[in-house]
Design brief:
- The chain is globular, with a radius of gyration of 14 Å.
- The model has no long low-confidence stretch (mean pLDDT about 90).
- The protein is of the alpha/beta class and about 90 residues long.
Length: about 90
Amino acid sequence: MNGNIIIDTNIIIYLSKKILPPEKIFFDDTLYSISIITKMELLGYSFSSQLEEDNLKKIISSFNLVSINNKIVDATIQLRKNNKIKLPDAII
């Protein structure tokens, strides 16, 4: 698979808990990214240990980080107008 893929928050959680093996979702020649919203959702969690938080930070650092820009703002507005969707999910 070639291209760009934005990974959702739940996928990162499944990876960090070893529920989802990386080889099932990652392919060569593909850029994997997460939204800044995903990073905020993940790191806003109250971790049970520093090790757990450090592991998640390591996973997050392996992805390209997509910030919010005007194009994303405009697309988010349209998504919310046309669909019943929460703001963070619309941004992602």
